[in-house]
Design brief:
Largest sheet: 5 strands, antiparallel
Strand content: 15-25%
Shape: globular
Length: 363
């Protein structure tokens, strides 16, 4: 399947290909630059021309829902602006921020006040997001405010009917679940009551619909989504980690997923060791083990970046693996992080994405 002529002409003339962020059976999502009348801007492209034929009908339905929601949400400042929409591709503005599960705004009551205000503006416009249980759909802007993204499941209502009120209630309840995770002391008594009471529709969904959904997506569509990592991250990465750690020269390791233009989802292993030549040895061992396909990239590092509890900072490794180097600046919180980044960035393996993001000076 190829793009319609009008879509292809627009992208050829105005789009600069950048970093591939995600590819699954419903769409491809890429970050790059889009030329507007007033100049180029950072943008996000979603396209459905590259999806399998058997998922195209559902992919187009999701595409149309997002296009409609972004059109209605224009000017609300709660999510990305719709810059252009064609038949099988759309362009939305880039929000300068990072996903909630990467930032982890512990104790940040101001962020959740902003999130509640953003949700209120969205609902006043008659839009329910319907996918706010995912932390990756909540962004923490560089200004500290909350923004929403990924409107594929959003619904637009002309009237505030019962279905709208149920969907809006569930949007709010999912927001409060995130608030409970990161700023529990900021929850009000009323918010605690909302958390304790699911709507009847949500209860029914958990008991029946969700099981059907998982059976279809994971079985029929062979689709698993863990921050876009897919089945390789869920199923293969743990097995590969066990094999890598068998090598006595390995102190620790972490594996993250990254979108790959050739294979769909690739795996990137960061291995902590003093033996810089260990990469070839590990590749041979993994191939000989006869298990899952080895990671596309193995990078040997002297020290993994770690959080206060000593666990590897997966969020930093994810940004390195996906070449989103400009976003790392806001994640650097300590001198050990700076030391790690200074050594790892120049030696990173995934150099296929050719968009030249400017990065902060780590020296």
């Amino acid at each position: 399947m190829s793009l319609p002529r009008d879509d292809a002409e627009i992208l050829s003339a105005q789009w600069t290909e950048g970093v591939l962020l995600k590819r699954d059976v419903f769409s491809s999502v890429e970050r790059g630059r889009f030329r507007m009348p007033n100049g180029e801007v950072d943008a996000i492209l979603r396209r459905i021309d590259q999806v399998p034929w058997w998922s195209y009908v559902l992919a187009r339905h999701l595409f149309q829902r997002e296009r409609r929601a972004l059109t209605v949400a224009h000017g609300l400042n709660v999510g990305p602006e719709l810059l252009w929409a064609g038949k099988q591709a759309l362009m939305r503005g880039f929000i300068d921020g990072m996903a909630l599960h990467l930032v982890k705004p512990a104790g940040d009551a101001a962020y959740f006040r902003s999130a509640k205000q953003a949700l209120r503006r969205l609902h006043r416009a008659g839009i329910c997001h319907n996918d706010l249980a995912k932390e990756q759909n909540w962004l923490v802007g560089r200004d500290g405010c909350a923004y929403l993204t990924d409107f594929q499941l959003a619904a637009c209502f002309r009237k505030r009917n019962r279905l709208f009120r149920i969907a809006a209630y569930e949007d709010l309840r999912h927001l409060l679940k995130h608030k409970r995770s990161y700023a529990p002391s900021a929850l009000t008594p009323k918010e605690r009551k909302i958390l304790a009471r699911k709507s009847m529709v949500a209860s029914l969904w958990l008991a029946t619909g969700k099981k059907v959904y998982q059976a279809v997506t994971r079985g029929l569509f062979n689709f698993t989504d863990r921050e876009g990592g897919g089945r390789r991250l869920v199923n293969d990465a743990p097995v590969l980690m066990l094999e890598i750690r068998k090598n006595p020269a390995v102190r620790d390791a972490a594996i993250v997923a990254f979108p790959d233009r050739r294979v769909g989802v690739g795996l990137y292993a960061f291995v902590e060791s003093d033996q810089t030549a260990l990469e070839t040895e590990l590749k041979g061992e993994l191939a000989a083990a006869g298990g899952p396909k080895p990671p596309e990239h193995i990078q040997i590092v002297k020290a993994l970046p770690r959080d206060a509890s000593g666990k590897p900072r997966i969020e930093l490794l994810q940004l390195v693996a996906t070449n989103q180097l400009d976003l790392i600046e806001t994640m650097v919180t300590s001198e050990p992080d700076r030391a790690f980044l200074k050594n790892i960035l120049e030696a990173r393996k995934n150099l296929r994405d050719r968009f030249n993001f400017e990065t902060a000076d780590m020296n």
